[in-house]
């Protein structure tokens, strides 16, 4: 996988901002005889978002709407596809390239209640429109309009709906940005897909408040058009005491999320899987699906064969666990990744189709003396088939219809004609006990599409068997007979035992089965073989073959905290046939190829502005020098030892400027970055560089799979 390339841009200020314009033209003609001047004027409107935003322009919210996670070290943000949006209007005319938008973050119970109203609620009755309903003592956008001047722009009416917030001066000082913060709270991004060379532009607006842990928080994207002089100063005071008792701001967009306290980050949990790694880079715990070294399952003898069996993924089942009446060896379909067992033709011909589960028991020269892995697989397949009424009746009915079709075909062919009734019956018994005769009359193979040389099988039966091949509905106890195989905070890798799945599907296909000497239908047609070969395919998997070859099982806090959304990137490239949560903290993945490694990444939407939290719960910020063509940006000062290829942090801020707790002073933070990074000319540090320092890229790690490939 090639990573998407991202370029940060300070702003995309449009040539003309939204608003009313008047164009005046003057042309003078002069000659010896006369002098004349011609004048004309035109008014026009540059239209754009003002009191609402097109939902289609919202590309991404972080944290995602209605999500729950460890967001108490992040600054919420919104990404929009309209790349010029944050700079199309002005909060203050003296700073035309600063943002007019801001994100206010409130914990439930501490913020204003949004009100649905109309544009008339935003301006007083003294404007040209004369129908404004803005209350006395409330400051809003129309408060800046001179008496008798128009407030509404072309295309707007007083009855247009809007959502607004009424905020007290104290709350606005506690939650709102300063004017200087608007230089840093928006930037543009250009993303390029290396595969297609397609470049897409976005604009991003970032909040200045870190959500409160343990809260349900709501983020509001608000307009600050013309509000620059009314914004609080860096210290939370106002340049002049407000004459208003509340400020009314339009909410263009809002979303909510639940903030769990950050106990461990995605990266920390990921690095701790399988016990972490030692100084040599090796995992401290086994990453294969098998019992840990030194573990002795109940019922196992002390023979030397025990260690080898356990190393191969076996456990010992006894009467107490309900999976066997007496001690027996058992291994599920999840083999240690260093092993591979294929369902070969010779194996299947000698054992499948099975007449009963006990025919698949294997006698071994060890204690216990029986390996019941495949017999258990066959039995659970049969039980699952019987438990599904639609599949069971569908299978039995289809087999009976096939028997009738065979009888008719044999009769019509004339191959059984002549002789006595007894001779006819004997010939019929001989024919239906011969798999090749059945295939000659009904079709060489099975197919879900009608064909003259194939036997038509309902797609619903194939889909059910294909899902079973992906271990759907197989109890976890049959996959992992001993949970010691999957300790907490582990990522275990496995290859699939194809024989186990073959026995599973054969058991499911055994309904109405008769001895082959009497009715060889199940010998002639074994759907598991065609599913494995890909000549019978699930309607839900498209062109993919529903037969897994390898996989992984994750048992970690990562699952409830970050799933769905975790990325799994296999090497070599493979299709993810199944990914399913088996329990609150357990995730199963099945691939159609044997893997050599698996990269696990944080969800891509987790790219965000964020901080670290130290042992005292304080916000800190590691900074970075970015290497571009063996040079670094910004240029490190002499006392910073930065080497080519070095990716670690070389500067950090142990104190984050905050007006109040968790309300970050973005302007002061940018100044602190300039100082810590040793940037000689502060004018070289724009909102693009600020975004580059603030962005927290997704965490990830690559796990080498023992024996993979």
Structure class: alpha+beta
Number of helices: 16
Q: Could you tell me the mean pLDDT?
A: 88
DSSP strand (E) fraction? Answer: 25-35%
Helix percentage: 10-25%
* Largest sheet geometry: 7 strands, mixed
Assembly form of the protein? single chain
Tell me the distance between the termini.
19 Å
Number of E strands: 38
| Unreliable runs | none
Radius of gyration equals: 36 Å
- How would you describe the shape? elongated
Structure description:
The chain is an alpha+beta fold and 709 residues long. The chain contains 16 helices and 38 strands. The strands form 12 sheets. Strands 5, 8, 9, 10, 11, 14 and 15 form a 7-stranded mixed beta sheet that branches. It has a 5-stranded antiparallel beta sheet with strand order 1-12-13-7-4. A 5-stranded antiparallel beta sheet has the order 18-23-24-27-26. Helix 5 runs parallel beside helix 11. The longest helix is centred in the middle third of the chain and has 25 residues. The mean pLDDT is 88.
Quick summary of this structure?
With 709 residues, this protein is of the alpha+beta class.
Topology summary:
Elements: E1 5-9, E2 19-30, E3 35-46, E4 58-62, E5 67-69, E6 74-75, E7 77-80, E8 101-107, E9 115-118, E10 138-139, E11 161-167, H1 169-175, E12 186-193, E13 198-206, E14 216-223, E15 246-259, H2 266-271, H3 305-311, E16 315-317, E17 328-330, E18 334-336, H4 345-351, E19 362-363, E20 370-371, H5 373-387, H6 389-413, H7 421-432, H8 435-442, E21 445-447, E22 454-456, H9 459-469, H10 476-479, E23 490-496, H11 498-508, H12 521-524, H13 527-533, E24 550-555, H14 558-562, E25 567-571, E26 576-583, E27 586-591, E28 597-601, E29 608-610, E30 612-613, E31 619-623, E32 626-628, E33 631-633, E34 651-653, E35 658-660, E36 663-664, H15 666-677, H16 687-694, E37 695-696, E38 700-704
Parallel strand pairs: 5-15, 10-15, 21-22
Antiparallel strand pairs: 1-12, 2-3, 4-7, 6-29, 7-13, 8-14, 9-11, 11-15, 12-13, 14-15, 16-17, 18-23, 19-20, 23-24, 24-27, 25-28, 26-27, 28-38, 29-37, 30-31, 31-34, 32-33, 35-36
Helix pairs in contact: 5-11
């Amino acid at each position: 996988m090639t990573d998407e390339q991202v370029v940060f841009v300070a702003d995309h200020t449009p040539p003309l901002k939204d608003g009313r314009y008047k164009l005046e033209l003057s042309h003078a003609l002069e000659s010896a005889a006369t002098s004349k001047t011609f004048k004309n004027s035109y008014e026009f409107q540059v239209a754009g978002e003002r009191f609402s935003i097109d939902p289609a322009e919202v590309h991404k919210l972080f944290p995602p709407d209605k999500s729950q996670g460890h967001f108490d070290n992040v600054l919420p943000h919104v990404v929009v596809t309209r790349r010029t949006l944050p700079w199309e209007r002005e909060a203050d005319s003296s700073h035309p390239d600063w943002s007019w938008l801001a994100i206010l973050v409130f914990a439930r119970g501490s913020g204003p209640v949004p009100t649905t109203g109309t544009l008339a609620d935003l301006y007083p009755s003294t404007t040209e429109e004369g129908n404004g309903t803005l209350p006395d003592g409330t400051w809003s956008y129309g408060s800046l309009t001179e008496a008798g001047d128009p407030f509404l722009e072309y295309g707007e009416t007083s009855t247009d709906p809007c959502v607004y917030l009424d905020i007290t001066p104290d709350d606005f000082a506690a939650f709102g940005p300063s004017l200087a913060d608007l230089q840093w709270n928006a930037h543009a991004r250009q993303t390029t897909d290396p595969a297609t060379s397609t470049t897409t532009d976005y604009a991003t607006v970032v909040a200045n408040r870190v959500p409160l842990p343990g809260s349900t928080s709501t983020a509001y994207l608000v307009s600050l058009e013309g509000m620059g002089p009314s914004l609080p100063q860096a210290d939370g005071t106002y340049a002049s005491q407000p004459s208003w008792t509340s400020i009314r701001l339009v909410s263009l967009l809002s979303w909510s999320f639940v903030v769990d306290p950050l106990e461990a980050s995605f990266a920390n949990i990921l690095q701790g899987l399988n016990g972490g790694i030692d100084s040599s880079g090796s995992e401290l715990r086994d990453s294969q699906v098998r019992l840990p070294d030194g573990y002795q399952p109940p019922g196992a003898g002390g023979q030397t064969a025990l260690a080898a069996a356990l190393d191969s993924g076996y456990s010992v089942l006894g009467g107490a666990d309900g999976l066997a009446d007496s001690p027996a060896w058992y291994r599920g379909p999840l083999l240690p990744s260093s092993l591979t067992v294929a369902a070969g033709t010779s194996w299947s011909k000698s054992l499948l189709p099975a007449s009963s589960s006990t025919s698949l028991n294997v006698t071994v020269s060890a204690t216990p003396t029986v390996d019941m892995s495949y017999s258990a697989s066959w039995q659970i397949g049969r039980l699952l088939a019987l438990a599904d009424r639609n599949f069971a009746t569908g299978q039995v009915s289809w087999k009976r219809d096939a028997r009738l079709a065979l009888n008719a075909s044999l009769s019509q062919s004339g191959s059984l004609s002549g002789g006595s009734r007894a001779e006819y019956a004997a010939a019929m018994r001989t024919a239906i006990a011969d798999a090749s005769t059945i295939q000659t009359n009904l079709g060489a193979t099975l197919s879900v599409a009608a064909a003259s040389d194939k036997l038509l099988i309902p797609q619903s039966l194939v889909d059910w068997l294909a899902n079973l091949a992906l271990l759907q509905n197989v109890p976890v106890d049959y996959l992992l007979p001993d949970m010691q195989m999957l300790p907490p905070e582990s990522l275990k890798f496995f290859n699939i035992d194809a024989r186990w799945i073959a026995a599973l599907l054969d058991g499911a296909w055994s309904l109405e089965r008769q001895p082959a000497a009497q009715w060889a239908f199940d010998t002639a047609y074994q759907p598991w073989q065609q599913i494995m070969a890909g000549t019978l395919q699930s309607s839900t998997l498209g062109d993919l073959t529903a037969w897994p070859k390898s996989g992984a099982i994750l048992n970690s806090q990562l699952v409830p905290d970050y799933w769905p959304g975790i990325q799994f990137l296999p090497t070599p490239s493979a299709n993810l046939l199944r990914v399913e949560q088996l329990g609150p903290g357990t995730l199963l993945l099945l691939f159609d190829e044997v893997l050599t490694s698996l990269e696990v990444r944080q969800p891509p939407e987790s790219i965000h502005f964020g901080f670290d939290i130290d042992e005292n719960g304080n916000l800190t910020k590691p900074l970075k020098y970015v290497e571009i063509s063996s040079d670094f940006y910004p240029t490190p000062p002499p006392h910073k030892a930065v080497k080519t290829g070095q990716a670690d942090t070389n500067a950090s801020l142990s104190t984050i400027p905050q007006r109040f707790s968790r309300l970050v002073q973005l302007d002061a933070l940018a100044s602190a970055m300039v100082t810590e990074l040793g940037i000689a000319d502060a004018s070289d540090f724009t909102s693009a560089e600020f975004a580059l320092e603030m962005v927290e890229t997704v965490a990830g790690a690559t796990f080498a799979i023992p024996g993979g490939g």
